[in-house]
Amino acid sequence: MRAVVQRVSRACVCVDGEMAGEIGPGLCVLIGISTKDKEADALWMSEKLLNLRILNDLQDKPNLSIRETGGAILLISQFTLLGDARTGRRPSYTEAAKPEHARPLFDRLAELCREGGTVCATGRFGAHMQVELVNDGPFTILLDSAKLF
After folding, report:
1. Active site residue 80
2. Is 79 a catalytic residue?
3. Is the pLDDT confidence value at 147 over 90?
């Protein structure tokens, strides 16, 4: 499971001109799910997202987690994060999971974040989406569970 995590002051995602998900301060997270990902990857990613200390404390230092600040998470599925563009001109997406494998893991990740006490909005899985965000910092972190398991 691969993620691009951005600290935001606000973020939203629209599908077909309608708001699908919206948050105030928190994390906007683009999630790519690979063919090898399992429940353990969703568990690891949820714990990392809920406890990653990249939100500012009262001294304006990135020392707090989303749990400690009461912020929200906006999760957006993005299979293109698994694209391999090392050779040729067109990325290969062979490592990206098919929807029947990816969707349950994406849904499980959102559920785990909610169970962890955090508001978690989502885009619409598999849809063409327009994402707007205000990156606070900017502050962007890359996470990849494949580097662990």
Report:
1. yes
2. yes
3. no
